[in-house]
Amino acid sequence: MKDHTKYQGVIPAFYACYGQDGSISAEGVKALTRHLIAKGVKGVYVGGSSGECIYQHPDERKAVLEAVMSEARGKITVIAHVACNNTADSVELAAHAEACGVDAIAAIPPIYFHLPEYAIADYWNAMSAAAPHTEFVIYNIPQLAGTALTMSLLRTMLQNPNVVAVKNSSMPTQDIQMFKDAGIAARGQNGFVVFNGPDEQFVSGLAMGADGGIGGTYAVMPELFLKMYELVHKGEMDAARALQYQADRIIYKMCEAHGNLYAVQKEILRRMYGLELGGVRAPLPGLAPADEAVVAEAERMIREAVAAL
């Protein structure tokens, strides 16, 4: 049986890092990778929603992953999201990710056109075939992708032995249980992983059986999610829930900004740690002058919550 402990824990979704001219900043990528390693996270999820993947050229996504791997190889788990909105580019990124030595590749379903399940399976299996020695994570985020992972599609994908996990970003925690049950039926008790996706329900996702979490706000406050993970595994659920509520209030505050959430978080990281990660790529909206108060308040809330741990 494969060892899946490398997926158990807190795995921040990696932010896109840009220079002043809007191009990929390899130095920013490396600095953020070092920062997260120092914080003690289990791994990083590169090139997903938080990485603004749908607004980047495949060559840019390759450059990001190469910069991450230059700092992360052998130190933390790296999962590379390789899906593009066509199979050819996705296959190219999958092969590149395997050549870089990642622990796993991941993919959402194709977006925009509503495809039959067999076509989605063909799309995912083509990526997996291009990275035959690398494990595969299905990314279920129906509210953005427009397609939900069904049990029949999951069972089809479980015929591929490289499929070892689902990153579940649907809101019902019941989905975690259903996906976990199907994985156990196919792989055995410890042979399949489910990640909690929605950051606002990290504790409830773990309680339902998630092995860990991949989330877009972890990187701006990893200490809180690491502590939640620890408390849940100690059985200290009241304390875990109280900390989840604190993290949720911070998320709600950051979401009050006119600018995109990732722009807010990158600005907070700049203020707190001096990380120069740039803004966000259009058409995502950057920070507006009126967002100053939101950013300042969210930063204060994070500092106070971390100090109280």
Automatic annotation (TrEMBL):
GO biological process: N-acetylneuraminate catabolic process
GO MF annotation list: N-acetylneuraminate lyase activity
Xref: Gene3D superfamilies: Aldolase class I
UniProt-annotated binding residues for pyruvate: I214
InterPro entries linked: Aldolase_TIM (IPR013785), DapA-like (IPR002220)
A Pfam family: DHDPS
Domain of life: Bacteria
Recorded coiled-coil stretches: none
Active site: Y139, K167
Cellular component, GO, one term: cytosol
This protein's UniProt keywords: Lyase
Entry's family note: Belongs to the DapA family.
Designated name of the protein: Dihydrodipicolinate synthase family protein
